[in-house]
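Form 7-S
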Amino acid sequence: MDPNQTNPQKEKKSKRIIITRKEMDSAFRSHVKTWEEARNVPFEKLKQNHCRKMILFYTVECGLKAYFMSKKNLESTEMETDSTTISGLGHNLNKILVQLKMNFEIPPITKNTDKPVECLHLHQAWRYGKDLDAGQEIECLKKLVNILNELVNRFNGGSEWKN
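Output:
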């Protein structure tokens, strides 16, 4: 291979950015403030606003990861504990909930005969406007708010959001 050419095998490997615990915590708090703007919106109306659903998802994701890093005393996302890195958990909220021993689970959401959308792909379904079962989606949103309430209370004893 010509040394001036790039190796296609190496190009496929994506390098994740490294986030510090302080940055993750700050992202969580920032997302919480953004989510607060939507907290009084009924779930039925929230169903139509994919951006707000994504904010809720990412708020919970950052909160779970910040809490994980705090509990495991990790200073950045590249640090490993028990063969687990934050980066390796990706967007799989259920996997993070299990790691934290939190008693929550986000079930898959379906629509008619479509393949179920697993928790780790919800952010994509909402980003691209995937039509999901309304009842299941509302239950999922309620669970995400419950997880967010738990995280806020664990971080700073803050007030709960109800919908």
